[in-house]
């Protein structure tokens, strides 16, 4: 089974947004993200 993961990064004050897409594969033991987006605090926060 797979699920779509689409976290959004939006800054309406500056009219900027980014929506990376990823797929989550559900196995018997764990979930596996299929993409290569690093969902870390350093990657997710933008310094403007």
What's the number of extended β-strand segments? Answer: 5
Structural class designation: mainly beta
Strand order of the largest sheet: 1-4-5
Count up the helices. 1
Instruction: Please tell me the total number of domains.
Output: 1
Task: Write the element-wise H/E pattern from the N-terminal end onward.
Answer: EEEEEH
Largest sheet: 3 strands, antiparallel
Shape: elongated
Portion in helices: under 10%
Gap from first CA to last CA: 38 Å
Query: What gyration radius follows from the Cα positions, in whole Å?
Result: 13 Å
Determine the strand fraction and express it as a percent band: 35-45%
Instruction: Catalogue the unreliable spans.
Output: none
- Return the average pLDDT rounded to an integer: 83
Structure description:
It is elongated, with a radius of gyration of 13 Å. The protein has one helix at residues 41-44; strands spanning 2-5, 9-11, 16-18, 22-26, 31-33. The chain has one domain. It has 1 helix and 5 strands. It starts with a strand and ends with a helix. Helices cover 8% and strands 38% of the residues. The strands form 2 sheets. A 3-stranded antiparallel beta sheet has the order 1-4-5, with no helix packed on it. The chain has a two-stranded antiparallel sheet with strand order 2-3. By secondary structure, the chain is mainly beta.
């Amino acid at each position: 089974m797979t699920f779509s993961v689409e976290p959004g990064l939006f800054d309406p004050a500056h009219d900027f947004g980014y929506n990376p897409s990823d797929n989550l594969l559900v196995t018997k033991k764990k979930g596996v993200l299929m993409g290569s987006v690093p969902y870390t605090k350093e990657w997710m926060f933008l310094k403007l």
